[in-house]
């Protein structure tokens, strides 16, 4: 599931990391994938799920070209830097045997 950096995200994801620790899953591989969307995907999601509450507003996002040439909206550098700092810090602290494969 994607990581949503919306209000309250820190408490939510820190609790999730603590739950992983409590479950005894300390030697795992972790992939952090933040929520992103393309204009086309947003239109399709809104057509199929007109009452969706997915955060798909361009405001507060950065437009970036993907590796395959299409454009997408991603979280800005400030929010990403904060997420990386907080979440990787907690993983290092609580799950020292784990490996973070990537954070995008």
Give the arrangement of secondary structure elements:
Blueprint: H1 9-22, E1 29-32, H2 39-48, E2 61-65, E3 71-75, H3 77-94, E4 99-103
Parallel strand pairs: 1-4
Antiparallel strand pairs: 2-3
Helix pairs in contact: 1-3
Description:
The protein is an alpha+beta fold and 104 residues long. The chain has helices spanning 9-22, 39-48, 77-94, and strands at 29-32, 61-65, 71-75, 99-103. It has a two-stranded parallel sheet. Strands 2-3 form a two-stranded antiparallel sheet. Helix 1 (9-22) runs parallel beside helix 3 (77-94). The chain is elongated. The mean pLDDT is 93.
Task: Please give the radius of gyration in angstroms.
Answer: 15 Å
Considering DSSP H and I runs of 4 or more, what fraction of the residues is helical?
Answer: 40-55%
Between the first and last Cα atoms, what is the distance in angstroms? 13 Å
Poorly predicted parts:
none
Oligomeric state of the chains in view: single chain
Strand order of the largest sheet: 1-4
Output the keywords.
104 residues; alpha+beta; two-stranded parallel ribbon; two-stranded antiparallel sheet; 3 helices
């Amino acid at each position: 599931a994607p990581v949503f950096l919306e209000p309250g995200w820190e408490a939510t994801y820190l609790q999730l990391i603590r739950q992983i620790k409590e479950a005894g899953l300390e030697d795992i591989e972790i992939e952090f994938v933040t929520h992103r969307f393309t204009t086309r995907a947003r239109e399709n999601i809104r057509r199929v799920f007109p009452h969706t509450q997915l955060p798909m507003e361009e405001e507060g996002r950065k437009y970036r070209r993907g590796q395959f040439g299409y454009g997408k909206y991603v979280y800005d550098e400030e929010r990403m830097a904060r997420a990386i700092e907080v979440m990787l810090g907690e993983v290092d602290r609580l799950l020292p045997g784990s490996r973070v494969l990537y954070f995008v």
